[in-house]
């Protein structure tokens, strides 16, 4: 059970280590694209699945080794890893590794045995690396074949069976299942990654085909629009030519009129003079006519109530003019309607032409429809094949998930059994400790009796040893006097236990019980209790008789002093042990509080940092923003180690924080600061030129974020030289130098009053 549980924990750590190794390899291949080829496990593949376990054992630690072109590149990679603190890695340079030649006799040594290098496939460029890792190692189908080669034929060669058993060159045999399946699964994981990449490639091809199909429809639409524009362009050109012809005709008429004006200009001057004389003559005649008309039509004018006949004529003339205007408006409207009718007829003709062209396009598309249908059928077939491949991959994935679930259930059962075993083990351990304490207590009582017998000069029948070897003083333990045992379980201290062991080994004394009767040697509980009472009664009588005799006062006094020292020492030790236990309990309480407070802060910051980073980096083009997260290097006591911070800007792949640009680092740092501040916020936040490394777009994002989150309880004090940031502020504070008093002064402006 313990081994299986250990394997499960190792698998978890292996997953974390594998991810770190993958990130390390990506960094190296990005920095040294020509010199770093990849891991050994990624550069080879077994010819059959049954060889996965054997090849995993043969490669061993070289599975994760990185193959590089030259030793120089390997040293540069090591330097890069050390500078970036990315971990550890093993490198195999192709130009300097020492490779032993393959012994061809092992290729046909025995049926069921083959060279390890023959059961894997790899590119010819990496042959030296795999010769170095595999050598002349043989892969045998069974253990009997391996024994026949190594023991029967006395070949000094390493042989590995399909189930993972190894016969070394020295003749030792090793085997077992721990860790073997995990190593073999690495080959399957590489195949799964290859299938995933193949699926992604097929999906990309399908998307490209769909785009091409949509692109063909767009091209047809654009061609139709181009045809319409070309027809309109033809009409515009015809109108332009007609206008040019009318303009030329108008120019000719203008020239003719100007020439005629030159000929008639002298006659026109004379005619104007004659006209002026005629106008004056006409005016005088009109006056005479008006006077005659007034006398003739005076009665008529009085009847119709007009001043004179001329007023009547003007009224009639105005009415005639209005009628003429109405006729002119009617004629104009009629002409406009006729023009509209003519335009509608032209539009109808154009529509008919367009209909003809569209019919031609339909005929052409109908002709090409068969080709498109064939292409569509091919695309659908490819899509169906891809779907089948995806379905197969999903089935494989479900199988892997089922295996993982089954192994998880097995692990849980193992954990339950382990818990049960641990409880039984704790119970047995407590029982053992209790019995050991009883033994040590009995030994201590025995020593006290021996010492008392020596002090009181009581003779004991001994088979071995002597009471003279028993010291009067308490023996000092040999351990460090400052060492202290802190144990939560009741029982004697470790110091006392050490003393009992010292007594048992330094003063071996064996008492002769042969003089006792059979009844006295009976260890029955009731019999022992009765004998103890009898012995105590007899002892009391003896003590009374001794008191009547002359006692050895000096010995008794010495014993009292020693016993008092023993009691004082034990009291001091018990007090010190209790103090140490109390201190440890207080320390554990403070440690738990420290962990809880750190975990509360970390959990809050870890939950908030991703959303804050998304708010700072999102835009119209990337509405989801970037991604940011935290990870602990030590989950048991996180405050003793570091916290890793990773940020991925929008539409960019994962990279180390050191490889981000200055602006990206600034955005990530601000997100971390805002997340930390959100745990226990302060009344205000001071930002000193944080926008120095940012472009206008990111400055605008920072300004919008600050503007949205600013409030009366959370104020931002921002120092900035960029208008994109401070124009969003609620108030501005400027600092200037007063030359008169040679001092600095401030000026403030409330921007909110001037908002649009």
UniProtKB/TrEMBL annotation:
One BP annotation, GO: sister chromatid cohesion
Pfam families listed in its UniProt record: SMC_hinge (PF06470), SMC_N (PF02463)
Domain SMC hinge: 34-150
InterPro entries with a match to the protein in the record: P-loop_NTPase, RecF/RecN/SMC_N, Smc1_ABC, SMC_hinge, SMC_hinge_sf
Compartments it resides in: Chromosome; Nucleus
Any GO molecular function: DNA binding
Predominant localisation class: nucleus
Protein name as annotated: 7886_t:CDS:1
């Amino acid at each position: 059970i313990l081994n299986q549980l250990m394997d499960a924990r190792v698998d978890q750590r292996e997953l974390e280590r594998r991810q770190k190794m993958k990130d390390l390899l990506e960094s190296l291949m990005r920095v040294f694209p020509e010199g770093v080829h990849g891991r050994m496990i990624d550069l080879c593949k077994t010819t059959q699945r049954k060889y996965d376990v054997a090849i995993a054992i043969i490669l061993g630690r070289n599975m994760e080794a990185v193959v590089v072109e030259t030793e120089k590149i390997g040293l540069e990679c090591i330097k890069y890893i050390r500078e970036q603190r990315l971990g550890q890695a093993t490198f195999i340079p192709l130009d300097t590794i020492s490779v032993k030649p393959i012994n061809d006799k092992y290729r046909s040594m025995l049926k069921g045995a083959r060279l390890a290098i023959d059961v894997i496939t790899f590119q010819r460029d990496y042959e030296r690396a795999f010769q170095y890792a595999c050598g002349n190692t043989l892969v045998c189908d069974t253990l009997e074949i391996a024994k026949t080669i190594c023991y029967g034929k006395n070949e000094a060669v390493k042989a590995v069976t399909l189930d993972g058993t190894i016969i070394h060159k020295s003749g030792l045999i090793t085997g077992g299942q721990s860790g073997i399946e995990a190593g073999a699964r690495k080959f399957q994981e590489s195949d799964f990654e290859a299938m995933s990449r193949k699926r992604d490639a097929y999906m990309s091809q399908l998307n490209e085909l769909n785009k091409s199909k949509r692109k063909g429809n767009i091209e047809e639409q654009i061609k139709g629009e181009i045809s319409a524009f070309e027809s309109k362009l033809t009409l515009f050109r015809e109108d332009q030519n007609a206008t040019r012809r009318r303009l030329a005709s108008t120019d000719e008429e203008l020239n003719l009129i100007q020439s005629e004006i030159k000929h008639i200009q002298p006659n026109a001057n004379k005619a104007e003079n004659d006209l002026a004389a005629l106008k004056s003559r006409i005016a005088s005649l009109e006056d005479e006519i008006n006077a005659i008309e007034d006398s003739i039509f005076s009665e008529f004018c009085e009847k119709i109530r007009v001043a004179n006949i001329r007023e009547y004529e003007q009224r009639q003339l105005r009415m005639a003019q209005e009628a003429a205007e109405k006729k002119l408006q009617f004629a104009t409207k009629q002409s406009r309607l006729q023009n509209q009718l003519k335009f509608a007829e032209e539009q109808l003709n154009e529509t008919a032409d367009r209909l003809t062209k569209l019919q031609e396009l339909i005929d052409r598309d109908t002709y090409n429809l068969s080709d498109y249908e064939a292409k569509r059928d091919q695309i659908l077939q490819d899509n169906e094949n891809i779907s089948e491949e995806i379905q197969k991959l999903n089935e494989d994935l479900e199988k892997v998930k089922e295996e993982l679930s089954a192994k998880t259930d097995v692990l849980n059962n193992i954990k339950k059994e382990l818990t049960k075993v641990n409880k039984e083990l704790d119970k047995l351990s407590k029982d053992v400790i209790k019995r050991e304490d009883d033994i040590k207590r009995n030994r201590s009582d025995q020593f006290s009796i021996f010492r008392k017998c020596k002090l009181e000069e009581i003779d004991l029948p001994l088979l071995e040893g002597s009471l003279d070897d028993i010291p009067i003083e308490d023996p000092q333990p040999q351990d460090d006097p400052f060492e202290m045992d802190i144990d939560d379980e009741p029982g004697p201290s470790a110091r006392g236990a050490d003393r009992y062991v010292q007594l048992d080994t330094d003063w071996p004394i064996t008492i002769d019980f042969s003089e006792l009767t059979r009844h006295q040697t009976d260890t029955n509980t009731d019999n022992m209790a009765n004998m103890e009472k009898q012995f105590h009664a007899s002892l009391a009588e003896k003590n009374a008789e001794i008191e009547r005799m002359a006692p050895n006062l000096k010995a008794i006094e010495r014993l009292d002093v020693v016993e008092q020292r023993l009691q004082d020492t034990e009291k001091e030790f018990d007090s010190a042990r209790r103090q140490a236990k109390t201190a440890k309990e207080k320390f554990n309480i403070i440690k738990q509080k420290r962990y809880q407070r750190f975990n509360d802060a970390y959990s809050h910051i870890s939950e908030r940092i991703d959303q804050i980073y998304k708010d700072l980096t999102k835009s119209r083009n990337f509405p989801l923003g970037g991604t940011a997260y935290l990870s602990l290097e030590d989950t048991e006591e996180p405050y003793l180690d570091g916290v890793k911070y990773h940020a991925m800007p929008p539409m960019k792949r994962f990279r180390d924080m050191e490889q981000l640009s200055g602006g990206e680092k600034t955005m990530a740092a601000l997100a971390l600061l805002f997340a930390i501040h959100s745990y226990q916020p302060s009344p205000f936040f001071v930002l000193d030129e944080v926008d120095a490394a940012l472009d206008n777009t990111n400055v605008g994002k920072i300004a919008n974020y600050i503007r949205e989150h600013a409030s009366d309880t959370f104020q931002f004090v921002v120092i900035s030289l960029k208008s994109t940031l401070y124009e969003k502020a609620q108030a501005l504070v400027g600092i200037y130098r007063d030359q008169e008093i040679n001092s600095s002064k401030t000026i403030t402006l409330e921007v909110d009053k001037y908002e649009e």
